[in-house]
Every structure is written in C-alpha cells, then in structure tokens.
Amino acid sequence: MSGAPAREAAVREVVADAGRCQSDPERFLPLHTPDVEIVNFGGRRVAGREALGVAMRAALASPLADVVTTVEITGVRFPGEGVAVVAAVKRVHDARREPDGGGPAHPVVSGQLTYLLVEEGGAWRISLAQTTPTTF
C-alpha cells in the first residue's frame, strides 16, 4: 500500500482487527510489536507481547471474559515515516452481573484511547496503547 489514504486504511484495519480479535490471543497478539506497552483503564501497564499474552489469557479465563470493548477512531495522524498515532474513544461493555443477579457489575465506561502504531516490514503493528478513563 502506498499513499496517505492507503496507509490510513491499513492502520484503521489493524485497530479494527484488534477489536475483532480481543478474545482470541492467537490472532490478537501478532497485531502488536514484541516490545508493545499497554496501559489499561485501571492504569495497569503490561510491557511486552509475551506479558500481554499471559495477562490476556488470565483475563479470558476469569469473569473478565464477559467484558468487551468497542473502539471508535476519531483521528489518525502520521507524524513521521512509519509511525501512526490513532486517537479513539474506547467503550467498555460489562456483561458480568452483580452477585445479587442485578444489573451489570459496571455500567458502560468510556475512555480516550491513544494508539501508536509502527510499520514493520510493510505491516502496521500496535506499539503502544494508553487508555485514560473519561467522566463524560
């Protein structure tokens, strides 16, 4: 792919793939660089694709498997060759239930998500993801 529209489409596809594969470590992890850093809603930092895989598999084996996210991209910039910054809104949908059987354990939560993607061998990969909860 060449040209700005093609680069942006490729970056958007990686972000969409990450959303589609959020419960499938075998497909999700290769979308990230080996030295990826992820900071989640709670401020937990996970460094490295291997550690991300361990954390992801542990979460999927727990009630957190019932928590899914959606991402709405609000902007894509290319500040340098082979680097993309993606601004997005992340929404967390919690299908877990309160112990008394009532509503969701947590209502829908949203945050500002920033991705840094790098181009490696002609493919875009997520190198950093930082989510900051929002109150609006």
Q: Describe it for me?
A:
The protein is of the alpha+beta class and 136 residues long. The chain has one domain (4-133): Nuclear Transport Factor 2, Chain: A (Roll). Helix content is 24%, strand content 44%. It is built from 3 helices and 6 strands. It has helices spanning 4-20, 25-28, 49-60; strands at residues 32-39, 45-47, 67-80, 83-94, 109-120, 123-133. The protein has a 6-stranded mixed β-sheet. The termini are far apart.
Taking the alpha carbons of the first and last residues, their distance comes to 38 Å
Low-confidence stretches: none
Please identify the structural class as seen in this structure. alpha+beta
Return the average pLDDT rounded to an integer.
86
Q: What's the multimeric state?
A: single chain
Based on CA inertia axes, which overall geometry fits?
globular
CATH structural fold name: Nuclear Transport Factor 2, Chain: A
Q: From N to C, what is the helix and strand string? A: HHEEHEEEE
What is the strand content?
35-45%
Number of domains in the coordinates?
1
Radius of gyration: 15 Å
Give me the number of helical elements.
Answer: 3
Summarize the amount of helix as a percent range. Answer: 10-25%
**Strand order of the main beta sheet, please?**
2-1-6-5-4-3
For the sheet with most strands, the description reads:
6 strands, mixed
Question: So what's the CATH class?
Answer: Alpha Beta
CATH architecture: Roll
Please count the beta strands (DSSP E, at least 2 residues each). Answer: 6
